[in-house]
């Protein structure tokens, strides 16, 4: 008969055992993935108390609870007749001169499987000083080995206290090599890893400062497919909360590509445009690009709530700094569309539509 887990170990949102518990400013603890989805959906209240949260809520790792969950899970697990190999054993196999490509692949995949949902195991790997070994395989010419190593590196990046250390050990160079020359799958995974590393504020500038980082993401945005484009857009979005990275994306030719993707229904592209519109260079590029205004008007008329909100914000920023854009927006019927949106049930849409109306009305 299995032992029932304490309720405190379960996320109040997903009702599943927490793998990465974090504390919200309300004092309540949630699994990071669940509360991040809640916040990414535009919610700014605590799911439990319903009280308002700051504009940029902090998620503080609950190390004590994570340790309790890990220890409880290990102690309540039935004994195994064939225990999993330790990280040291698997890493020793990777560095052995007699190790084969098949053996290395098996070791990397086993490390990935064991670390994916186990923070304790991930810390054992990083504490063993194995990051440099893993990075060697991230730079492998063998696509299968490279993907396995990238998957493991991404696992290690899930813990906030690992993110800065991974960057310090040279993870960015290895990830960028895969981003620039890897297979479609490796490039997408490399972009995802950059997103994870960029969650920590100090890493945003470090990544942006690295030669070719932003340019490589814009290149994937341009020539990638499906998942690759989405992951590149998400990485750029995460990095662009750092103002200098906004200008780097513009200089790398990101605006025309993002406008085209936004017109194709890529929601994240609209969100990135909203960030780029905060810098002068971004607004100037948008104003110059033929079809920018028409694309955003199309989103206002038929996009998702999230896309409409960001399209309104983008138009508001660009129009507030350009009389010509105000006049063109009025010709395209933006004012009438905005009047219709001030009654929308989404509070962000109502607020952004009201702001845009205030910008455009003097030119009516």
TrEMBL record:
Pathway: Protein modification; protein ubiquitination
Keyword Iron: no
Gene3D superfamilies: Leucine-rich Repeat Variant, Zinc/RING finger domain, C3HC4 (zinc finger)
GO terms (BP aspect): protein ubiquitination
Top EC group: transferase
EC number from the UniProt entry: 2.3.2.27
Pfam families: ARM_PUB, U-box
GO terms assigned for molecular function: ubiquitin protein ligase activity
Keywords carried by this UniProt record: Transferase, Ubl conjugation pathway
Every U-box domain range: 4-79
Catalytic activity entry: S-ubiquitinyl-[E2 ubiquitin-conjugating enzyme]-L-cysteine + [acceptor protein]-L-lysine = [E2 ubiquitin-conjugating enzyme]-L-cysteine + N(6)-ubiquitinyl-[acceptor protein]-L-lysine
InterPro entries the UniProt entry points to: ARM-like, ARM-type_fold, ARM_PUB, Armadillo, RING-Ubox_PUB, Ubox_domain, Znf_RING/FYVE/PHD
Protein name in UniProt: RING-type E3 ubiquitin transferase
Organism this protein belongs to: Aristolochia fimbriata (White veined hardy Dutchman's pipe vine)
């Amino acid at each position: 008969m299995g032992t029932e887990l304490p309720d405190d170990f379960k996320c109040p949102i997903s009702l599943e055992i927490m793998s990465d518990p974090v504390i919200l400013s309300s004092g309540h603890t949630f699994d990071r993935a669940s509360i991040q989805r809640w916040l990414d959906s535009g919610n700014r209240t605590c799911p439990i108390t319903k009280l308002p949260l700051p504009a940029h809520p902090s998620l503080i790792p609950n190390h004590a609870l994570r340790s309790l969950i890990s220890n409880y899970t290990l102690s309540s697990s039935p004994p195994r007749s064939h225990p999993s190999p330790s990280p040291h054993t698997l890493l020793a196999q990777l560095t052995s001169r007699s190790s084969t490509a098949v053996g290395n692949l098996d070791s990397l995949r086993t490390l990935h499987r064991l670390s994916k949902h186990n923070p304790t195991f991930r810390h054992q790997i990083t504490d063993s000083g194995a990051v440099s070994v893993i990075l060697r395989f991230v730079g492998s010419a063998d696509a299968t080995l490279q993907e396995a190593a990238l998957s493991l590196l991404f696992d290690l990046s899930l813990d906030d206290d690992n993110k800065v250390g991974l960057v310090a050990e040279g993870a960015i160079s290895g990830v960028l090599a895969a981003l620039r020359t890897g297979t479609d799958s490796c490039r997408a995974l490399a972009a995802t890893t950059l997103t994870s590393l960029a969650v920590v504020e100090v890493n945003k500038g470090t990544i942006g400062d690295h030669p070719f980082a932003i340019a490589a993401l814009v290149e994937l945005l341009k020539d990638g497919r499906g998942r690759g484009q989405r992951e590149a857009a998400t990485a750029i979005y995460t990095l662009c909360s750092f103002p200098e990275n906004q200008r780097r994306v513009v200089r790398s030719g990101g605006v025309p590509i993002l406008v085209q993707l936004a017109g194709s229904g890529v929601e994240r592209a609209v969100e990135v445009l909203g960030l780029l519109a905060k810098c002068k260079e971004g607004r100037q590029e948008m104003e110059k690009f033929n079809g920018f205004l028409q694309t955003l008007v199309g989103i206002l008329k038929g996009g998702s709530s999230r896309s409409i909100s960001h399209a309104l914000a983008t138009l508001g920023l660009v129009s507030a700094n350009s009389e010509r854009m105000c006049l063109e927006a009025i010709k395209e019927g933006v004012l009438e569309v905005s009047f219709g949106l001030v009654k929308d049930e989404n509070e962000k849409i109502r607020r952004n539509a009201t702001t845009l109306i205030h910008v455009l009305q003097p030119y009516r």
